[in-house]
Design a protein that fits this description.
alpha+beta, 3 strands
Amino acid sequence: MMKKDEKKLEDCPIRRTFNVIGSKWRLLLIEIMRDEKKRYGELKRHIPEISEKVLNEELKALVKDGFLKKKSYPEIPPKVEYSLTEKGEKILPILDAITLFSMEYMANGEEVNQTCSTKNTHP
């Protein structure tokens, strides 16, 4: 029987957050869209190892959870752009902290890229 002051693991804020953004690709997608809107093809070029099926699923989940917005243009061929919402932008300082941690503690003496996107605009 659980004690009164014990919390269920699923109530942990870290666990809840990672259930939403903790997939292999979601934080990377948010990082890639840090500075500007991206079209599907641009995202695919940034992460060539992601399958189209998984990229579609991840984008759909990020839109559903309110981290990205999707704008469709009525043209042929169809044009769709993804960009960060205010909620998505709130994750950027966390990504900056992860980047700094990685550079400081995970480099193992090697030169490390400071960014996962093509721009190098943050710490």
